[in-house]
Amino acid sequence: MSTLTELLELSLDEKTIIAEYIWIGGSGTDLRSKARTLPGPVTDPKKLPKWNYDGSSTGQAPGEDSEVILYPQAIFKDPFRRGHNILVICDAYTPQGVPIPTNKRAAAAEIFSKKEVSEEETWFGLEQEYTLLQKDVKWPLGWPVGGYPGPQGPYYCGTGADKAWGRDIVNAHYKASLYAGIQISGINGEVMPGQWEFQVGPAVGISAADQLWAARYILERITEIAGVVLSLDPKPIEGDWNGAGCHTNYSTKSMREEGGFEIIKKAINKLGLRHKEHIASYGEGNERRLTGRHETADMNSFSWGVANRGASIRVGRDTEREGKGYFEDRRPASNMDPYIVTSMIANTTILWKPEG
Predict the structure, then answer these.
(1) Which of 33, 105, 317, 354 has its Cβ near the most Cβ atoms within 10 Å?
(2) Percent helix, strand and coil across the chain, each rounded to 5?
């Protein structure tokens, strides 16, 4: 009698490929997926078939007209099935070809495809913070149930059984993401115990958002295996504990060239003029995080500074010294939609023209 593990590890004919189609559900943050069999390896998403699903079961369509169509957009290697099997990031459309309301990728692709934006070769580095929770009590991993660990201080980039909880999950995700082809550039333990971070990028344009969603999906699957709950809540624990963000590092070709610091300052000024619009699109519940405490700026005001982690926008010392480089938008919450945030930053800094 074969064991479950042995059956999961069965090798398939190289011409038999399993493709896991992944899409964003009705909440705008939940991930859904289902698999289909393909007759051979595929590396170009344009050569993958469209598919459909029941949108009435994901909060994305009424029961009397429930069919939603998946358009494949990006392919990654599948670290769970391995071989030639793939993960496919999709976006969702009506049968008439209209993006459904939760499809934020379509509008982002339109912005990134504009000549002025594509010529600037926008680079994004996304710092995804997240919290691991105990499954049955929804309390941070490693914390005493109903109680609290010692105060913040020893946990950021900490080591040891009393400081770092969930490292095997974090490292498994790191390697699985690299295997998948995601440009994951690092990991670290965060200030609040049970909270971690991984970084995606630098990646160009909409690819950064595709990769972050793929990395989130892989992390969801790994925490599923580990029996742990993944939380992207911007402030999972009230009180004197850091929240969770998704700091967004950004540069354009002009910013990376000589004299780029002046371009950076002009871009930051434009972001300040549209501060309220950006805050409204930077993640649900972000007002609980952006209080002016715990390495955040107050959401009701806009500020920037060099090496200032209490500002809305931080410019690094290297950028100031070299007169070119990038800046970090520290406002996005951990549950932000990277399609919205990256395209909005590009739109405001490149395309938007202030009146007067």
Answers:
(1) 105
(2) 30, 25, 45
The length of the chain is 356
Tell me the pLDDT of the chain averaged across its residues. 96
Strand pairing category for 228-231 and 195-204: unpaired
Residue 74 contacts residue 109 (beta carbons within 8 Å): no
What's the CA gap between 186 and 35, in Å, rounded?
A: 29
286 vs 279: CA distance, rounded Å: 8
Cα–Cα distance for residue pair 327/354, rounded to 1 Å: 21
- Candidates 258, 180, 171, 264; CA nearest to 215 is 180
Residue closest to 301 by CA, chosen among 331, 281, 327: 331
C-alpha 253: how far from chain center: 23
Contact 230, 181 (CB under 8 A): no
From CA 311, how far away is CA 307, in angstroms rounded?
A: 9
For the chain, state the CA radius of gyration.
Answer: 21
Tokens of 9: 């590890």
Amino acid at 230: L
Which regions in the chain score pLDDT beneath 50?
none
- Block residue for tokens 């496919």: 88
- Tell me the sheet residues that pair with 82: none
pTM confidence score: 0.96
